Amino acid sequence: MSEIPLWQPPMRRRLIGILAGLLGFVVISQLVVEGLDWRLKQPQAPKTVRLLEAFRESEGRVDIALLGSSRLHAAVCVPQLERLLGERLSKPVSARSFWIEAGSMPAYTIIARDVLKGAQKPDRIALIMGAGSFNSNSPRYRNTLRYLCSPRDIVSPWGPRRLDELPIAADVAFRAGGTLIQSWRGFSDAERQAAEVSERLGGGKYADLPAVARDASRKQFDRVKDRYAEEVLRRVSIRSRGTREDVLVDYHPAGRASDALKELIAICRERGIALVVVNIPLSDAFCEQTYRNREDTRYLEQVRAICLAAEVPFFDFNQPGERPPLTDFRDGDHLNEIGADRFTQKLAEEVFAR
Amino acid sequence: MAFNSIAFGLFLTVVFFVSWSLRRGGRAWLLFLLGASYVFYGSWNEKYLLLIVFSTALDYWVGRRIHLEEREGRRKAWLTLSIAGNLGMLGTFKYYDFFASSLVELAGGFGVSLSLPLLNVLLPVGISFYTFQTLSYTIDIYRRKLEPAESFLELALFVAFFPQLVAGPIVRAKQFLPQFHNPQDITPERLGTGLGLILKGLFKKVVIADFLGAMVVDPVFAAPGDYGAADTWLSIYCYALQLYGDFSGYTDIARGSARLLGFELPENFVAPYASRNLQDFWQRWHITLSTWLRDYLYIPLGGSRLGPVRTYVNLAMVAVVAGLWHGARWSLVTWGAMHGIGLAATRLFQRWRESRRGELPEPRGLQALVFRVLTFHYVAASMILFRGGNWDTIGAIFRGLVSGGGVPTLVTGSVAAAVAIGYGTHFTPMDWKERALHRFGDLPGWVQGTVLAATLSLFQTLSLESDPFIYFQF
């Protein structure tokens, strides 16, 4: 061993010194950032992550928090949900969609754990997702690791398990230092307001609709329905291929995804939050073309079993025969304004008004 | 696996520890470094590894044949085979589609309908760099300036050594092969300066090049008509800095990584924007390419030995080849021609001055400053051709330089700071920079570790998604 040049005393001392300096900086910056609760203060992160921090900074609170991915953002019109529930319950109800781009089950749990806490704790959480969010091996999980996981998550069972996730985890080690360096940066009021508006609307708005419907009013829509459906169908094949290649790779609903759901249930129980889990509606065409290895069935079995064991209500709005028509979607898995209108109503009546 | 990614940091760390744990100069050591280099290259596109292996095998075999062969004709034939093999590969993958589509277009201009099949293949990363390295190997053996590599393994590692594989510097076999037999030992000082070079390169790449590219250059070149003269001028100053920061940053990281593994790679940039004339510029910019072109193209063409006119022609030809080497685009050929004309004009001007006043002293003071400013602006203007992509954009940028709009809209505090730091460090004397590097190398380990971590954190905030290096496309 002593013949190896690296282990000669001067080199050994130097290497130990470099390692100590490196680790010292990483550990101290992590402690400071975690201690000050600044982990989500990352102006370079994607918008949906920054909005979480904007919500925390605003010290706002909502009665109902919706957790999910971009499909949730497209599917629920928050102001409409608030209005419907307000009318039914005869009291004002506030709701907000805490959707995250390329969402994964662990991401939703982390949001509940680290954002919806203390004075910002909601009365209810609705987890609205599909099979894509519930793949423990999804390449999308890298985003969760990079932007949301805390250092203790990295060394937990939620941590990196695939080779391609290792560099991301190393990146996280230096994130705290980066957060400290840019801690002077924040959000302007204009940014916050713009974020607030886009966050609350959702519900198929701002979505890129197939060309045929872009200029059509609701009344005119009936006349172009068939052509619209044809265009959506074309989009389905692209979306479906993308989902198979990017989201459902090596599908594994047990492991990290299941652990995260169990953790979310435990958090809600501990904090006295009522949790409901909702299977988001998709189109028949998308389901047929996408879930070729029974991913949707395996996901449902897993989620149902966990919810049943924990006595958490589970609503399945994606049952064959009850799925919305193609004309309710903009691409087969994201609802358009019309689909969102119907789904929001269903959500208000069948899930929250009970 | 770009140099400015965490993945490369982890990869280099593993290679560093394993390589120093093996016996230096031994077969296992060479094999490990070659394996690591192939893994590195395979991370871009594993299929193109075959091209490197083919090129290496061809030149290993041909190199030995040339060395053993006494008859001049046969030696020349073997050399021709090597040149044809290497340039054939380069021509197929890099230039075929360009020339084929240009020919079809030209024929169309004369009303002739021509149809040629296009390959539409992805350009193999670093092909221009390693092809030039392998070519110099066989040519040097032919010229009896080099003994062939002792083993296939040595030559393969010379060609594929990962720090310089994809974007240079273009290393000569006679500089590199001896390092296998006299490997440098690792010392705290070499470790420190190696790390310092890597940090310096990352700083140039992330803080200067990527930042100015995203904030100033990309917006202006994407929509030149939307910006006035002040912004257009700013964008070409920033692009000059971006290109220098990107490429010299890469070279610094390559040299630092090689030094950590016990190898020395040549310097590739010496404050090029401080050049007094274009000749001086090419002695400071991409030095390993310009010396390669000098030794293997300019001098064989006759250099300056065949009279003034032939010298100007040779200079222009070499510069056009340099342009074409950078990419299969007419704008790059024009960039090369612009440099060729500039080089010829410089030579003509020097001859004229010498004929009037005899041997001239080096320009000093204000005169030197004027020469430097003129040279820099000529180079920066030529870079519009380098960056522009299509002729519409290039034309719009040149028009933008003389349009209205005297108030820059893209200058923010951060942009001004990046420009000031970029040009400030560029014009800092080389020996100061060298001294600073050695001072960093002498710092205690824990300070180096802290600086390393702080710098990596800074980069993490500036570039979460790493931009590829510009020179990878060549």
Outline the secondary-structure elements:
The complex is a heterodimer of chains A (354) and B (474).
Chain A lengths: L8 H27 L11 H12 L5 E5 L1 H6 L2 H12 L5 E5 L5 H10 L9 E6 L11 H7 L3 H4 L11 H16 L7 H13 L9 H4 L3 H29 L9 H16 L2 E6 L4 H7 L4 H16 L3 E3 L20 H16 L2
Parallel strand pairs in A: 1-2, 1-3, 3-4, 4-5
Helix pairs in contact in A: 1-8, 4-15, 5-12, 6-8, 11-13, 12-14
Chain B lengths: L5 H16 L5 H19 L3 H20 L3 H38 L17 H16 L9 H9 L1 H4 L7 H4 L1 H4 L6 H35 L6 H32 L17 H5 L4 H12 L9 H19 L3 H28 L7 H24 L2 H11 L11 H14 L3 H13 L2 H18 L12
Please describe what this structure looks like:
Chain A has helices spanning 9-35, 47-58, 70-75, 78-89, 105-114, 141-147, 151-154, 166-181, 189-201, 211-214, 218-246, 256-271, 284-290, 295-310, 337-352; strands at 64-68, 95-99, 124-129, 274-279, 314-316. Chain A has 354 residues and is of the alpha/beta class. The termini of chain A are far apart. With 474 residues, chain B is mainly α. Chain B is built from 20 helices and no strands. Classes of the chains: A alpha/beta (354), B mainly alpha (474). Chain A binds chain B through residues 4-6, 10-11, 13-26, 29, 44-45, 146, 166-168, 170-171, 174-182, and chain B through 5-7, 9-10, 17, 20-21, 24, 185-188, 191-192, 195, 444-454, 456-458, 460-462, 464.
Query: How confident is the prediction overall: mean pLDDT of chain B?
Result: 86
Question: Roughly what is the average pLDDT of chain A, rounded to an integer?
Answer: 86
Number of strands of chain B: 0
Secondary structure category of chain A? alpha/beta
Shape of chain A: globular
> Which series of helices and strands of chain A comes N to C?
HHEHHEHEHHHHHHHEHHEH
Instruction: Indicate the radius of gyration of chain B in whole angstroms.
Output: 23 Å
**Greatest interface by residues involved:** A-B, 37 and 34 residues
The secondary structure category of chain B is mainly alpha
Number of helices of chain B: 20
Which band does the percent of strand residues of chain B land in? Answer: under 5%
Describe the largest sheet of chain A: 5 strands, parallel
- Helix fraction of chain A, binned, reads 55-70%
Main sheet makeup of chain B: none
Number of strands of chain A: 5
**Approximately how much beta-strand content do the residues of chain A carry?**
5-15%
Q: What is the oligomeric state here?
A: heterodimer
Using the CA coordinates, give the radius of gyration of chain A. 22 Å
How many helices of chain A? The count is 15
Q: Termini of chain A, distance in Å?
A: 71 Å
